[in-house]
Amino acid sequence: GARGGPAGTGMGLPAAVRDRVAAVHRGSALPERLRLYDGWAARYEQDVAALEYRAPHLAAASLSFAFPAPRAEARLLDVACGTGLVARELHRRGFRCLHGVDGSAGMLEQARSTGLYQELRLCVLGTEPLPAPAEYYDAVTLVGALGEGQVPSTVLPELLRATKPGGFLCLTTRSNPSNLRYKAELEAALGQLERSGAWQKLLAQKVEYWERATTEEESTQGTGYISGVVYIYQKCPVPHLEEG
Questions:
Q1: SUPFAM superfamilies, from UniProt (predicted)?
Q2: Residues of the chain above pLDDT 90, percent
Q3: Pairing of strands 199-212, 225-235
Q4: Mean pLDDT of the chain
Q5: Is 213 domain-assigned?
């Protein structure tokens, strides 16, 4: 904005918040990063509030828009659920049957304290199989963790496996410079599954103000924010085998 010019962008964040966010996005090895998330859990929600992190709200709103009523009975799996930010948004929109999975015990502890989940499981995605029965969930969300050094795009088939035919998947990723290579890989994987008839794309919503940038380099054209995308897919019902 005009106030103080672009030099101030994103840098209005407290240094400690910036450091904590940068630490988990840095290319550290997985065990180290999970330890950082464990340590971050207690302060996580106030930090992302400072970041103006909008993904949970945007994802829940998009999923609700696509999702047929009624919602109270629908089973949802919140993958990489963290402290329960997505669950809170879903709950506000009438979803009541929520299960969560995360790789950080510290985050799960916070999620448990919200009282929003019927079930919570510890699972490091990409290294352990997703602990979910096949074709069980009406919707599966993976918000915020599809990124460089976080959850690999190879988990997509597992998310699909856990989703009922006709069920919905809500995924998000960031479009900041350091995540572009990952995003390209993710979109290639998403497209491949679509071409194979596994699911149909209902929405790919580009969002300019995803969250505040923690560095000048990551900021979109000097806005002080990074951008992101919300994707909604619908798992295809079993196809009829007419065409031989």
A1: S-adenosyl-L-methionine-dependent methyltransferases
A2: 73
A3: antiparallel
A4: 90
A5: yes
Mean pLDDT of 206-216: 91
Number of H helices, E strands in the chain: 7, 7
Q: Is 10 part of a structural domain of the chain? A: no
Instruction: Say if CB 108 and CB 72 are below 8 A apart.
Output: no
CATH code at position 41: 3.40.50.150
Q: Are 58 and 207 in contact (CB under 8 A)?
A: yes
Residue type present at position 154: T
Is residue 6 very low, low, confident or very high in pLDDT (cuts 50, 70, 90)? very low
Number of domains in the chain: 1
The answer to whether residue 78 is domain-embedded is: yes
Does the residue 73 lie in any domain? yes
Which domain covers residue 188, as residue numbers?
15-235
Task: Find, among 123, 119, 122, 177, the residue nearest to 147 by Cα.
Answer: 177
Q: Rounded to an integer, what distance in angstroms lies between the CA atom of residue 108 and that of residue 131?
A: 15
Q: What are the angstrom distances between the C-alpha of 106 and each of 33, 41, 76, 206? A: 12, 6, 22, 31
